[in-house]
Amino acid sequence: MDERRLEELFRDSVRSVPPATFDEQDVIRASRRITARRRMAAAGGTVVAAAVLMGGVGVGTGLFAPSSSNLASTGQSERQQPASADSRTEGPGIMVERSGQCGPDAQIAAAVQAQLPEAAGVAPVAASRCPVGARAVSFVLRDGAAAGSVTVYVSPVGTVPPDQAEPGDGTRQDGTEQSVRKARSGKLVVVLSDPDPGSPAAPYGSRIAAIAGGVADQF
């Protein structure tokens, strides 16, 4: 192949190359965009570093800690809250449930019915004026002409009224028969037979001591 033929081939190949799709201005604009992105990335890193630094300074110096006045007011409000929302005091050393009732406790009910079979066919009900932490049950009963309720408490020592704080038997001025025994657990078992108004006597009043002793042996 001679030189003339080679020269013609080279000229043809140059003419077949497509024209460029960008010019000098396109290159300048692209360069500016890349530079702007790099600056924004650098600025973002600076902001993050500053935030971390401020957080460390705030924690170290107590800048962001709650004020002492807020802490004091919070502590004071907590101290002013009652010890128990479910209990209230009636007289020195006497605590009763705020609802005024507790029970009926199934285990105590079974123990009472074992000592007093006449209560076996009677549905147990809740006891009124229940000491804090006590378990209790009550039965509404009729004993011949006598009518009223027999109530049994198993209560922690120190939460019962003073007249129930020591083991023993007695009759109140309102005609209620009472028997107190110390349970195996150290708690107190209190049995009360309360006559209804107009009742000539308390129902099964003569048997509450045996009931108290039987329940005390089981609790």
TrEMBL record:
Q: Give the stretches traversing the membrane.
A: 41-65
Stretches for region Disordered: 69-92, 158-204
Key words, A-Z: Membrane, Transmembrane, Transmembrane helix
Locations of Polar residues compositional bias?
Answer: 69-86
This chain's protein is named Uncharacterized protein
